[in-house]
Design brief:
Number of helices: 11
Protein name: Esterase family protein
Radius of gyration: 17 Å
CATH topology: Rossmann fold
CATH architecture: 3-Layer(aba) Sandwich
Helix content: 40-55%
Strand order of the largest sheet: 1-2-4-3-5-6-7-8
Organism: Candidatus Pelethenecus faecipullorum
Strand content: 15-25%
Number of strands: 8
Mean pLDDT: 96
Oligomer: single chain
Distance between the termini: 34 Å
CATH class: Alpha Beta
Length: about 250
């Protein structure tokens, strides 16, 4: 398996950032770690090994990025400063990393993916820059910024709150037609510690329905809690279907 480790300077974050790419070709998945996680977590947890055959065959490629949650959503202190970290992180992803990947992997489908906080980041990138992605795959996400900063609100808190963005999207917004061409898959369990994620997922589904955006939204039983065993089972179930769609050149319309 081809594995590329990259450490490069980000002009938005004014520091060196790390990521890993697993695979040489195929359906590319921009993978965000769980809360406070690192770029190597999916490898350490066994996700890369789970799909190693497809990766080695050039059918699948994981791009695993780092997080700055400890300085933004998980931090304490001034909400505006924390939001600025998140905003700069967003621009690092969409203005530095994704353009680089688009240049080096021009023929690849690109989906954003994540579990828990990773799902938040994936959906945020999709909500704000659907032109950069072919789809989004989210598990057990919280999708509104108010969960982390409570009553504080400004332009950045709205921009970085995908649930609010979809709930308040105008019917004449230029992105609406674009959202309708993309593949959206969202899943959440109904077991332990999924309460807030379940609420957000339900509200997100309602917003999609109201806007006429087709999305596959799934609710798993109470046996599926907010934890890795549930996510791995969900990934193992849904990812082969997404890969099959991509390989057939399908888009959800």
């Amino acid at each position: 398996m081809k594995i590329e480790y990259v450490r490069s300077y980000s002009t938005y974050l004014k520091r060196e950032m790390e990521y890993k790419v697993y695979g040489h070709d195929g359906f590319s998945i921009l993978s965000f770690p769980t809360q406070n996680g690192r770029f190597y977590d999916y490898e350490d947890r066994g996700l890369i090994a789970m799909f190693s055959d497809w990766i080695e065959q050039g059918r699948l490629r994981f791009i695993c990025v780092d997080s700055l949650d400890l300085e933004s959503w998980s931090a304490t202190g001034d909400p505006k400063s924390r939001l600025m970290v998140q905003e700069n992180y967003f621009h690092y992803i969409v203005d530095e990393l994704i353009p680089h990947f688009k240049t080096t992997m021009p023929q690849s489908f690109l989906y954003a993916f994540g579990c828990s906080m990773g799902a938040y980041h994936a959906m945020t990138v999709f909500a704000r820059r659907p032109d950069l992605l072919d789809g989004v795959f989210c598990l057990s996400g919280i999708y509104h910024s108010g969960f982390f900063i409570k009553d504080y609100a400004d332009d950045l808190s709205f921009l970085n709150s995908p649930l609010d963005s979809f709930c308040h999207l105008r019917c004449d917004h230029p992105y609406l037609a674009l959202y309708r061409t993309k593949r959206i898959l969202v899943c959440v369990g109904t077991g332990a510690y999924e309460g807030e994620c379940l609420w957000d997922t339900q509200r997100l589904e309602e917003a999609f329905l109201k806007l006429g955006i087709q999305a596959s939204v799934y609710y798993w039983s109470e046996g599926y809690s907010h934890d890795w065993p549930a996510w791995f089972e969900q990934i193992f179930y849904y990812l082969p279907h997404l890969l099959e769609e991509v390989e057939k050149g399908l888009r959800r319309t």
